[in-house]
Amino acid sequence: MAHQSKLGGLLKVAQLATYISLACATASFPTYQLASSKKFTTELGADIAASSFVGADGNFHFITSLASYAAYDDGSSFTKTFTGDDFGELANSFSSETPRKNYDSYWNKPGSMCYQLDKRATNPMPSLYQDDHCDIVGVWIDPESKDWLGIVNDEYQFNPWLPTGQDQNSRIHTGRHNNRVMLAKSSDQGTSWEIVDQICTDRLQPNQTVTEALFPNTTFSYGLSGTRLYIDYIHGYAYALYNSQVREKKSFATIATVNHLARAPLRDGLAPSTWRKYYNGRWDQPGIGGIDGTVGDSLGLQLIYIPGSDHVAFEGTGADGKAVKYQATPFARGGNFTFFDGSGTEYSVDTAAKTIRIADTGKPVPVVSYLDAALNRTITIGQGASNVVVNSTDRYGVSASYAPVNNHYIFRDTVTGRLYVPTRTLLEAAFTYNVYSGKYRSVSYDNYVYENDDLGRPDDWVPVGQQPEEVGRHLAYTSVIDTGSLTNQNVGSITYSVISDLHVTIDTITQVPHTANQSSYSVYRAPKDSSGNVIESDVEYKITVGTSALDLGSGNRWYLEPIKDTHNAQYVSGFYRLRHTATSNGTSQYLQVFGDTAAQARKLGATVALGPPQKLYDVNGRNGYGSPGGSDQWYILPFGSNINRPLDSSSSQSDVDKAQRTSLLDVAGAKLVNRNSGLVLGVRNGNFELAFNSFAQNEEFKFNVQKN
Q1: pLDDT tens profile 148-182
Q2: Which of 28, 204, 611, 688 has a CA that sits 20 to 30 A from residue 647's CA?
Q3: Distances (CA, A) of 654 to 263, 398, 495, 657, 660
């Protein structure tokens, strides 16, 4: 996606950052610190979020994709798979000798994954102009087949409101297109890719095609885009985060953008028929053609779009219990709009003169600020760096702004006349499980850090921090990677790293202590033993994996030693070493994975044993990109008490209730996971080894800790 429409949207986000702050509330969370910021080679860059993962052979892979708008196959469309020890090694030692696979994904190349999808023998799908531009974003390895499965962001049907007679390349070069989410597969570790099928499509496009009949007026639905993948091993689901947009036909200007979530059970291999969208508190809308529920708003307001009347509004019940309808209201370029404050006073805004006046007296005012009881947010309208800006600040101090002049729309309640600013809480967010807090964490384009106990309740995100401004300038096509391993994209801690594939930067961010007047912050959640007591570092434990005692021939006597954070030693990280009471030549012995290379110590089936302590993360290693710690670092990952199967409207209430038990406060046990590989400690034929994290093997590989 090289791409004028996407990059234009990112530029608007950047412009908003230049406006003066109109926030009225003091933030109730800390601002994190930037520990380091490094550029890496553009060879590792692209314009979609990168995928970082460890293969079954233990090798680290870094996948980037770009579907360019080139008029011919010049090599600028690709899905590249780079292989190395870890991201730090790739970034520091990159050369022409770096192992890679370069898959040519040009849209018009016969045999490429998105070539003429409507003519495929298997699972053909609508593609009016046969112009699909496909990017891989997020990869999961199927434990059964060992295939790589990747989510695909598909741009297609370019310039849907085209002038007659426009040729294919001219249409593509406009950068205007439709969107959908698909699934791809590689059976040869990235040498080639093939599309499996669609998994999430726009319900307003029954045939996945934009037509005048579906959108007869001035607006249309842009489809589903901005995709991200998160694998929730805790509850056995893959989550796809994406957004939808309502746009003007003529200008292609965005009127509204909202975020959505869909999920599929891992046990079914992400099969297209098993994806379900979240809507109205349930996970029973089919991925293909189902309703896309708006997520990420604490009030649960839904975007209602009716193409026949160009009705675009955020609707629902406010914090005060009253119905709200914040409707998109256009105004002329350089024209005026009006609004009311919380007391009912009307104001007129002249966007050309950049002035605000009391409507009935004409008296100018520099700023209007009021508490909207329905939103429980402070709305402030004032002069930004170059335009009038509307700002919304919630009770935590999270602030969102927009300049109405950018798209000539405001969102105004149809009864009270008060203004609304759409939230950006989950905009192209990267999810992780935070081993320090024991919560899910989200880092999105709004530059705030959020946590949540339950991905099944995607409106319940609470801010726990804000990233430094410099990080905010790099938030484009971003992914998060664990700093201490530089391989694991699934977890994080006090310190974490954000990779921007567009800006080719890796920013390492670390949490700081909160102040006395800050009430919203990340809190350490200590793991507990099998009796429900907090695990202590000076207490001796016996450990079983399933029913097998972890004695390794030396007795079942262990201490769980917390590892300090990579950049902030006043914090424990949530990662552990398991020290045995036995020693060798006076040296403590730790549970670790042996191998002559990093890959061998991460591969599926690698055996564990006792050995001396391995190195810790080196912040100065690899010229500042960092060197990971050894294979003796582990984390305790809970597993849920839920069932993980697709629901539909006919599902029994019992199944619905069981499927929705996805809270981290309601778990059935835990497994021990190796930090560098992301594989669990399993047992096969009496031997302890690294195994895939399968929801079906929760009890078989259950990590039990009891005091000796």
Answers
A1: 999 999 999 999 998 777 899 999 999 999 999 99
A2: 204
A3: 19, 38, 40, 5, 10
Cβ(357)–Cβ(347) under 8 Å?
yes
For 47-91, the pLDDT digits (tens) are 899 999 999 999 999 999 999 999 999 999 999 999 999 999 999
Question: 417-453: string of b/e by CB count within 10 Å (b at 16+)?
Answer: bbbbbbbbbbbbbbbbbbbbbbbbbbbbbbbbbbbbb
Contact between residue 257 and residue 427 where contact means Cβ atoms under 8 Å apart? yes
Rounded to the nearest 10°, the torsion over CA 403, 405, 408, 411 is 30
Tens of pLDDT, residues 524-555: 999 999 999 999 999 999 999 999 999 998 89
Whether the per-residue pLDDT at 384 is higher than 90: the answer is no
Report the C-alpha dihedral over residues 504, 225, 298, 479, rounded to 10 degrees.
-20
- Is it the case that residue 661 has pLDDT exceeding 60? yes
510, amino acid identity: T
Q: State residue 25's pLDDT score.
A: 59
The DSSP symbol for 95 reads: -
- Residue type for 152, please? V
Angstrom CA distances, 229 to 62, 67, 273, 355, stand at 15, 18, 17, 44
Sign of CA dihedral 506, 511, 515, 519: positive
Domain boundaries, the chain: 33-299+425-510, 315-420, 541-707
Cα–Cα distance list, 169 to 4, 107, 166, 172 (Å):
14, 11, 8, 5
pLDDT (average), residues 102-115: 98
Q: How far apart are CA 246 and CA 205, in angstroms?
A: 13
pTM given for the model: 0.96
* Strand segments (E) across 421-545: 430-434, 439-443, 448-452, 462-466, 478-481, 491-492, 495-500, 505-510, 541-545
Domain 33-299+425-510: assigned CATH number: 2.115.10
**Contact criterion met (CB below 8 Å) for 79 and 68:** no
Which residues are CB-neighbours of 23 under 8 A, at least 6 positions away?
Answer: 378, 380, 391, 393, 397, 399
pLDDT band at 14 (very low <50, low <70, confident <90, very high): very low
What pLDDT shows up at residue 164? 74
Domain over 541-707 is classified CATH 1.10.3630.10 = no
Helix, strand, coil percent values for the chain (each to nearest 5): 10, 40, 50
Write the DSSP symbol of residue 113: T
